[in-house]
Write a structure and sequence with these properties.
about 200 residues, alpha/beta, Rossmann fold, 7 helices, about 60% helix, globular, 2' cyclic ADP-D-ribose synthase BdTIR, TIR_dom, Toll_tir_struct_dom_sf
């Protein structure tokens, strides 16, 4: 009797585990709603990861390279696809953001894809952001133009300012998540309106 009860409990636990794994796999294959663009060395272990974890707890599918990519993934293919599929981009600007080709490429792709971008200026002023040809970041002239256009667009977008020496990490993460939620609701409402207007009676 006791052995049968233990066997039933184990079978139920296995079934629950299988269901949880299946749900996790299905969820991981859905397109992300939010893409977090950041300079890893500056903000990965602080605001970017905190924001990703907070959004995940709110059940908002988000993309952060070290959380969503696995060995064997092609960098540009995976990143470009995630940006094209997402609804909102968060650009976490930091002092060395413009030293990263990937950061600038991702930002330019947001702008070119006409995605809503929420800037977070972390320890940097918008006026300090500029793509230039440096020894550690050799850029072609057309890339400099492309990246600077994207940076200018971001500078002209209302964002969140954060000073890591004075500010509270929890406050900026909560504010950013609130803006993301509002943006996702606005985008969904707009899509619903567009679908309604296309219905022919």
């Amino acid at each position: 009797m006791q052995r049968a009860l233990v066997g039933n409990l184990l079978q139920r636990e296995i079934q629950i585990s299988r269901n949880q794994i299946t749900k996790k796999v299905i969820r991981s294959q859905l397109p992300c709603e939010v893409f977090i663009n950041h300079r890893g060395n500056d903000t990965k272990r602080t605001i970017s990861s905190l924001l990703y974890d907070h959004l995940t707890r709110l059940r908002i599918r988000s993309f952060l390279d070290n959380k969503n990519m696995k060995p064997g993934d092609k960098l540009f293919e995976k990143i470009d696809s995630a940006i094209k599929e997402c609804k909102v981009g968060i650009a976490v600007f930091s002092p060395r953001y413009c030293d990263s080709y990937f950061c600038l490429h991702e930002l330019a792709l947001f702008v070119e894809s006409k995605k809503k971008v929420i800037p977070i200026f972390c320890d940097v002023k918008p006026s300090e952001l500029r793509a230039v040809n440096k020894a550690n970041l050799p850029l072609r002239p057309e890339e400099i133009v492309r990246f600077n256009l994207a940076l200018e667009e971001a500078k002209l977008t209302v964002g969140l300012d954060f000073d890591s020496n004075k500010g509270n990490w929890s406050d900026v993460v909560t504010k950013a998540a609130d803006v993301v939620i509002e943006s996702l609701i606005e985008i969904e409402d707009e899509q619903t309106r567009n679908q309604t207007t296309h219905i022919v009676f």
